[in-house]
Amino acid sequence: MTAYDLLLAPFADYGFMRRALVACLCLGLGSGPIGVFLMLRRMSLVGDAMSHAVLPGAAIGYLVAGSLSLTAMGLGGLVAGLSVALLSGMVSRVTSLQEDASFASFYLSSLALGVLIVSLRGSNVDLLHVLFGTILAIDAPALYEIGVISAVTLTVLAIIYRPLVAECFDPGFLRAIGGRGPIYHFLFLLLVVLNLVASFQALGTLMAVGLMMLPAAIAQLWSRSLPSMMAIAAASATASGYLGLIASYHLELASGPTIIMTAALLYGLSIFLAPSGLARRYFPRPHLKG
Amino acid sequence: MSAVAIELEDLTVAYERHPAVHHVSGIVAVGSLTAIAGPNGAGKSSLLKAIVGELRPSSGTIRHRLRRTDFGYLPQAADINRRFPISVLDTVLFGAWRQSGAFGQISSAERQKARDALAMVGLEGFDRRGIGSLSAGQFQRVLFARLLLQDASVILLDEPFTAIDGRTTGDLLEIVADWHHEGRTILTVLHDFEQVRAHFPQTLLLAREVVGWGATADVMSPGNLRKARAMAEQWDEGAGICEPAR
């Protein structure tokens, strides 16, 4: 088997592989940096919760469209995810519940409702698709949607970068100078939901956060500055997408889980090899003079 | 009498209806350097929070003609994420918010000012260090550098020298004295009475109510301090409604 057969042929030969690859690259570019911010805001699990919250909306979209229409499900998911984000944000602002507690309550209700709706009308196959995604079945409209979402994500992140960093780093300061922190918080949550909707179509509701949090964790192991963290996260997310697709093609494995497993492998390697990783502990470098 | 920077009129700030600051009235003059002293639970931090607008007064009013960006506020235990991957220089540059805003460019002049501010707090050459590698004292110096850059006309400091060593405290007190000479209005919450006597011409001795407010030597009398301690320890779970005095 030549390098061409191994690395390029699957994409040259099959349109669905090309579309899956482009989808992965777009998802990685947007989700990686978003994941870094989620992790720095100590909201890693909120991302997970949100990905489940998308489900009932997607399920309703599926019922309305009558088939696995990615656009209808994406729209429904967007509405559901945003409602849960706004509602739990509001609950934690007006009651004594912390944001993670209100998120947990909302996403569990949301997930239960979603599975109920799907099982009401759909078959088990549909349920599997909703839970685990259909990255090899992404059609052109869905691909445009994913591409637009990642372009919007990067643009908005670039625009709100300074207030968002201030809101993550020192919210009290932003408040004191009248910086309208909540607006940026909600804009950021909107980006999270958009990216989850995009990955939901590819990776399913259970693993949609995979290309968000694993690359973010990898980035945090390798770097100490925010811009390079975002670059590393985007790079490792897209690399996982490409390598995962290749592996799933040749080994005849399910694509979505293989992509996430690739990211997990990179994460495992990073735990050992990264500057703050385990290898340093067993092979320490001598300390400096001052 | 010099101009009034902030006027408090019968100000009460309450948590769950229990007053933390109770019927406080008084005037902060422009350019004054005032220490707010008092025992724990005397409402010192709550008073600052009410002045910057973080706490809403239960009754009474706070009058001033300042915009939010005219205040430089350093809270006690700021909920700052010290593990955030940001450099010392970028942290200080948040002080240029009034010029840059949320989206504007940061000019090289501001950058130079930030470096100068770092030099003033004794952290020359720390620009590119991550804040995660700083000690508590160094980090407090960084926050003072940010305040320097903010160029605020009213500066509110809440226990700025807690857990800070003597040398750092001395350096930072010098910066406070410089601000005073530049005519800025400064309110500082302190628990160290020696510091208050040595460096602050005005004192507000607070025990939820005003025990004394004026020249430090007059206010910090043994009698007043005893009174403050006794007053702060009263917390009546079954307290009745406070009727306005007639």
- Content of β-strand of chain B: 15-25%
Poorly predicted ranges of chain A = none
Biggest β-sheet of chain B, characterized?
Answer: 6 strands, mixed
Averaged pLDDT of chain A = 87
Helical content class of chain A = over 70%
Protein chains sharing the most extensive interface: A-B, 23 and 25 residues
Query: What would you say the CATH architecture of chain A is?
Result: Orthogonal Bundle
What is the terminal-to-terminal distance of chain A?
54 Å
Number of strands of chain B: 9
* Radius of gyration of CA atoms of chain A, rounded to a whole number: 20 Å
Query: Count of helical segments of chain B?
Result: 9
Q: What features would you describe in this structure?
A:
- The complex is a heterodimer of chains A (290) and B (246).
- Chain A is an all-alpha fold and 290 residues long.
- Chain A contains 16 helices and no strands.
- Chain A is globular, with a radius of gyration of 20 Å.
- Chain B folds into 2 domains: 1-66 and 153-237, 3-Layer(aba) Sandwich (Rossmann fold), CATH 3.40.50.300; 80-152, no CATH class.
- Chain B has helices at 44-52, 88-93, 97-100, 108-120, 136-150, 166-181, 193-199, 216-219, 222-232; strands spanning 4-15, 18-29, 33-37, 59-63, 71-74, 154-158, 185-189, 202-207, 209-215.
- In chain B, helix 4 (108-120) crosses helix 5 (136-150).
